[in-house]
Amino acid sequence: MKNFNVEVVAKILILLGFSIFYLKIIVSNEILTYVHPRIIPFAIFGMISMFIITLFLISDVFYNNRKKFKIKNHFIFIFPLIMILFMQSSSANSATKSIDANGKLNESSSTNNSSNNSNNSLPSLNSTYELYSGKSESDGQGQVDKIQLNIVNNIIEVNINNFVSSLDEILGNPKKYEGKEIEISGFVYRDKDLKENQFIIARFMMVCCAADLQVAGIECSSSDSSSYDNGTWVKIKGKIKINTSEDGIDPVISVETISKDPTPDTSYVYPF
């Protein structure tokens, strides 16, 4: 009876482990918790490649290897697989519940979900709440693309699909939209620099992966804002006002109506 080549068997199990993990999160769309949708084709390619390599290794299972198997040589691959068994993904909704009054991720919550929880790996949530720029993108030939806002009955409607582009346009051209009505949904976000009646209507924005998640949104002013805790998902309607300060001119939504969103779409938004 031939002896198993433990080295090859270990490699096959490791490759299968990672392949099955990728297959699971891709099929369930859980992968969107960790990476930008543009990364998914690369993840699929990697998963298929690992399956193919596994097939080629099967023929070497009974190959006589005189070297002694050392598990430490494979620990760098085995350890992540062990972590995967304990890892629990979370949505943006669960992450917002961990934001404290200062706009930072609650440390105790992060500890309780420390098994590589993608949203809880944020370095700091109070780093920024503005988008990358207030300018439209150039097409590479000196022409600037015009961003079309979704305006229905003279109301600017901002949803999950146009959140970044709409706010990018408004933040870049505040005077153009002064006095315009706007409807938008997101979660309440505050930091220490905001006044009691101020908050940010925000969403989590992902550029590449969970490691670069940041808060993106626009400032709001409401006399009823204290009724809503940090991380509460709300729908608001109001008018765009102009706030002039030493830092420049910024748009602010003067909230007319605000209500809790019972079924929020907590998906991430993307700048491109």
Features:
5-stranded mixed beta barrel; single chain; alpha+beta; 21% strand
Description:
Residues 105-123 have a biased composition (Low complexity). The chain has 272 residues and is α+β, with helices and mostly antiparallel strands. It folds into 2 domains: 4-87, no CATH class; 148-271, Nucleic acid-binding proteins (OB fold (Dihydrolipoamide Acetyltransferase, E2P), Beta Barrel). It is 27% helix and 21% strand. The protein has helices at 6-27, 40-58, 75-86, 92-96, 107-112, 163-172; strands at 151-152, 155-158, 181-189, 198-205, 214-221, 233-245, 248-260. It is elongated, with a radius of gyration of 24 Å.
Summarize the structure.
This protein is 27% helix and 21% strand. The chain has 6 helices and 7 strands.
CATH fold topology of the largest domain = OB fold (Dihydrolipoamide Acetyltransferase, E2P)
| The CATH homologous superfamily of the largest domain | Nucleic acid-binding proteins
The neighbouring-strand order within the major sheet is 3-4-5-7-6
Shape: elongated
Measured as a percent range, the helix fraction is 25-40%
Question: Which consecutive residue ranges, at least 5 long each, have pLDDT under 50?
Answer: 107-129, 132-145
